[in-house]
Amino acid sequence: MNTIPLKYLELLACPKCFGTLQPHQDDLVCKKCQRTYPVVDGIPILLVKEDLDASTQTSANSWDQFWDHWGMHKEGEVEKHPYYSKVLEHIRAHGPEGDWGVFLELGCGNGALSLGVAKSRQVPVVGIDFSLGACRGAKKYFEQEGVDGFFVVGDIQRLPFKEKVFGYIFAGGSLEHFTDTSVGVNEAYRVCQEEGKIYASVPGITLTTLTVYQTWGNIPELPLLRPLAEWFHIKVLKSRHMKYGYEKSFTHKGFAKYFARAGFGDFRFGLFDYNREMHLLPFAWMKKTANWILSIPLFWPMFYLDAKRD
Ligand SMILES: [Zn+2]
Fold this sequence. Notes:
alpha/beta; Rossmann fold; eleven-stranded mixed sheet; two-stranded parallel sheet; 13 strands; 23% strand; binds zinc ion
């Protein structure tokens, strides 16, 4: 069944020209530029593949495989999951006061967090990811739990949505994966409603990202370090170890600058704490010690920014 409910169809726009999309047989067609987009299992593929930059294309392929092999949690398990439940607390605590409007998750992956939002807030939930495997998994989750939600395959740098349609945008570990961060942030601003909020978490520049994160090629966004890290990880090592694709880390100020330039205001920062599972460490005391070390700000690898559109 490829029918897209009207309340979701109304949010969509052609990623090429932002024209209105209308259903035609099994596809969506842009009224303005006539471009056709397929809908697969109820998931619109609103991606212009040739417009993706090379790093996004590489990441899309590796994440597709990742999500295709990902095992689902059982019904009701997500909210109890140590990692997801903690992040859900963050999302709830930083949402707009009053009505959230439509919730958007940028880089939704398997949709576990969106599911938590849909179940606890009764708001329309939309997830976007450049991997069809991820969107399929997310859709399965929502069906398993009998919750309403909508997933779109698309590019964060070219959001296939109309202007000012979302009241709350969550970007958990997604905005760091682009060489030019401003493109995605400007897009988030375009689709955010007035008085709407964004909550984003990214790696910060700390002792952990400067050491441990280098094993998968994290790029610290600092004047001399960035070109050096890009030269080493991409040119010398040919990106082979960059298992999360292209990934940057930021200073609070550096990250906030993108949001200020886009038009957001009212910034708040904090440590993005979540329960690390530390799979690689064999003993409970080791996991405990590692978690304790990481709780020191100098080491803490992730931070959040929360901002508002005036
Ligand atoms: Zn168009």
